[in-house]
Design goal:
alpha/beta, Threonyl-tRNA Synthetase, Chain A, domain 2, flat, 764 residues, 4 domains, 9-stranded mixed β-sheet, Rossmann fold
Length: 764
């Protein structure tokens, strides 16, 4: 039988390895001989160095001139006596190639070998009085440099540190292990002492029994015989040694995982991109100092105007306090006794008129306080830069899974929330009020805080220009469908596929959590890091997936239920397995933000809107219509409203961040979602024999109504949605209805029943 190509290649490779390995073994032997000979012949050969071409000059080295030259380079000009390690390294490398030691890491061996060569050279350089070349030129120069700057005590401290370093990381000699071995040895010594004492006691007992006087009374002859027989049997039984086998207990899952963690450490998902560096603050611009300038004249004027306006309506104030924010100042007032709160609430427009303000917002009362709040815009608002928010201690030290720094509150504190706790975010606002900047703030926060292995983004951008700047980080942070060319989704049909693919991913993740006996993704990943889950069983590290949808209204208008249904399903179920949704729209109407969506999006952000109705649609309360725009927003998570000045991050800043991340080593491709193929891909491959039993009846319903929709078939024939959808696809393949047109009903291509009957007869 002829050998395969792989076998031939393997044999050639092994031949080269054997030849090269044997060559290295010979070289290591010759190098060891020449270096060893140098210690005895260096005085005679010192004057003949660099005269290798002169044949009249003899050398005392065993390997003659070449040996003397090489030894001089390695020992005198190099690392001294520690150069002998090089011959050992060459020998180990040659043996590993010759005998094919696959477990031996040559690179690791040479790294530690060079480390010990330098360390030993430094130590031996301090004993140059014995041999001037003992540490070599390299060792002498380095040690002399260190001593000049740190002194002899500092030098030996450094040597001690690197010695301990090698003991811990190379030889795995840990203080805990040494202490455990010490205590175990003490216990063994105690046990041996106890055994010796027991032996001595037993011997004394036996000797005492042997020294008993023998009774030769003839009356007890029979008894003596019986006793002698008993003693003989007892002695024989004592001679038989019983062997006790102790069965080893089976290792539990905890024991196996603990052993794996002790041997390899916990699983680290970031090791695949270990050299990845997060963006620095240099990529962000600094818009001003970030501190708030207090205009005392403005504060005093506003205070007097508020008090005067309220007095005009016979409302007295007991106390007033001002909290200055970046764009808005909150005036907390304590009304006098007997004043109705509703009277103050109804004076929003009057106070705004008196202050000549763009719009004020009255909070009556402030939750948790016995005061009424009046928010008045500042005449000179400050810009909250993304740099000041990212660099804040509150964000940097945030112990959150997915931290997001939105901006600063009225009290000028950085507002940081966890996307995992939200768990989904609904964002709305009129055109040009800061939604796109808000999305960039969310994405930038996660880019600065999370490693590419920990979070993935799915970006949906119907406008095709807002999120396109993130295309450079495709191989690091983005996720997409298999065989998809672009990672930023702009086609509505691909959006439907992606959402359905996410539903498949959700089901797969829940299956993994069920098998792992975990309730959420955090517990699952912690178990996987602790090596309690076997990858051979399909388990893997699960990154968080964040779906960002811009201009949600456009998707609803074009696709309708096909988009709403998977989004509602994801919003209801996906929080436990680490899939979070962020939806933005400029039309917060009830036909876009439906009741199902609102019920599953407890966290909401409202930028400035045009009417109170839009504010109630998004927040369930008014107030968003009184915002001043330019990033001024209201945030709620089911309880109180928080007014925030959204941080500002410009497009060039985001481009710099994307270029910085994209220039680094990434994964081979974007994170791939489960494959999903739409039903329309199968149209045209449907045979007549595969048609549904109710195909003819459903066709009559469609022709009579002149409306090609699956929902109509559902109602008339009392079918499920999937079966009705298949019938519609079969009708399209047959030519009864037209192609899919988004939320619109399909066009019916047959005008009446008679034409349909003729068509069915010909088709059969």
């Amino acid at each position: 039988m002829s050998k395969t190509t792989s076998e031939v290649n393997y044999n050639r490779k092994r031949s080269r390895e054997i030849l090269f390995g044997s060559f290295l073994i010979i070289i290591s032997f010759l190098l060891f001989i020449s270096l060893s000979s140098y210690f005895f012949t260096w005085e005679n050969d010192q004057s003949n160095i660099n005269k290798i071409l002169d044949r009249n000059i003899d050398s005392k080295n065993i390997l003659k001139k070449i040996g003397a030259e090489i030894s001089h380079i390695f020992i005198y000009e190099g690392f001294g006596a520690s150069s002998l390690i090089f011959s050992l390294l060459l020998c180990i490398t040659g043996l590993s190639l010759f005998f094919e030691f696959k477990k031996l890491s040559i690179l690791n061996t040479w790294s530690w070998g060079l480390f010990y060569t330098i360390l030993l050279s430094l130590i031996l350089s301090q004993f140059k009085t014995v041999f001037q070349f003992l540490g070599g030129t390299v060792g002498y120069e380095i040690s002399d440099f260190i001593i000049d700057y740190t002194g002899i005590i500092g030098f030996w401290s450094i040597i001690l540190f690197f010695t301990l370093f090698s003991m811990v990381f190379h030889f795995k000699i840990l203080p805990k292990k040494i202490a455990a071995d010490f205590w175990n040895q003490e216990e063994k010594d105690i046990e041996s002492d106890e055994d010796e004492s027991n032996i001595i006691i037993n011997e004394s007992i036996i000797s005492n029994t042997e020294n008993l006087d023998d009774n030769d009374n003839e009356d007890y002859t029979k008894t003596e015989v019986d006793s002698n027989n008993y003693n003989e049997v007892k002695e024989k039984s004592d001679d038989v040694v019983m062997e006790i086998s102790k069965n080893k207990e089976e290792e539990t899952v905890e024991d196996v995982s603990a052993n794996l963690v002790e041997k390899y450490g916990e699983f680290d998902p970031t090791l695949e991109l270990s050299g990845f560096r997060s963006p620095s603050l240099e990529q962000l611009k600094d818009y001003g100092s970030g501190s708030i300038k207090i205009d005392e004249k403005e504060l005093e004027s506003n205070k007097n105007t508020i008090i005067e306006t309220l007095r005009n309506y016979k409302i007295e104030i007991a106390k007033i306090k001002a909290n200055i924010g970046p764009t808005v100042t909150l005036y907390e007032i304590v009304p006098a006794a007997g004043i109705r709160i509703s009277k103050i609430k109804n004076l929003e427009d009057d106070i705004a008129l008196s202050l000549s303000a763009l719009g004020i917002r009255i909070i009556a009362p402030i939750p948790g306080k016995g005061t009424v709040g009046i928010e008045v815009p500042n005449n000179n608002p400050a810009i909250v830069s993304m740099k000041s928010v990212i660099s804040s201690q509150k964000f940097q030290n945030a112990e959150m899974e997915l931290p997001i720094a939105f901006g600063k509150t009225i009290s000028n504190e950085t507002f940081t929330v966890d996307l995992v706790k939200m768990p989904h975010l609904l964002m709305a606002g009129a055109t040009g009020q800061g939604k796109s900047v808000g999305l960039n703030v969310i994405l930038t926060s996660l880019l600065y805080k999370k490693h590419p292995s920990e979070v993935k983004f799915i970006l949906v951008d119907p406008k095709k220009v807002e999120l396109n700047i993130y295309s450079k980080i495709e191989r690091h942070y983005l996720a997409k469908l298999p065989n998809s060319e672009e990672s930023i989704i702009t086609d509505n049909k691909k959006v439907i596929y992606t959402l359905n693919s996410l539903c498949i991913e959700m089901d797969n993740r829940y299956e993994l959590l069920k098998n792992a006996m975990c309730r959420n993704i955090r517990e699952y990943n912690q178990k996987y890091k602790s090596r309690k889950l076997n990858p051979d069983n399909g388990h893997r590290f699960l990154p968080y997936i964040v779906l960002v949808v811009d201009e949600f209204a456009d998707l609803i208008m074009s696709a309708g239920k096909e988009v709403e249904t998977p989004i509602a399903r994801l919003a209801q179920l996906a929080r436990a397995i680490g899939i979070h949704l962020i939806i933005a729209t400029q039309r917060p109407s009830v036909n876009v933000i439906t009741g199902i969506i609102k019920a599953n999006f407890p966290a909401r952000i409202a930028f400035r809107v045009t009417s109170k109705i839009d504010s109630r649609t998004i927040l369930d309360v008014s107030g968003a219509d009184q915002l001043i725009g330019r990033g001024d927003m209201l945030y709620t998570q089911g309880n109180e409203l928080i007014r925030i000045q959204c941080a500002f991050v410009d497009t060039p800043e985001v481009e710099k961040i994307s270029e910085f991340i994209g220039s680094q080593k990434g994964y081979p491709d974007a994170h791939l979602l489960p494959e999903f193929s739409g039903e329309e891909n199968e149209i045209g491959e449907i045979n007549i024999e595969d048609r549904d039993e109710l195909f003819d009846e459903a066709a009559k319903v469609i022709v009579i109504a002149q409306q090609g929709s699956a929902s109509l078939i559902q109602r008339k024939l009392k079918l499920g949605y999937n079966r009705a959808g298949r019938i519609i696809d079969q009708m399209e393949a047959a030519g009864i209805v037209g192609p899919f047109e988004g939320s619109k009903a399909r066009q019916v291509l047959i005008p009446d029943l008679s034409t349909l009957e003729q068509f069915l007869r010909n088709d059969s």
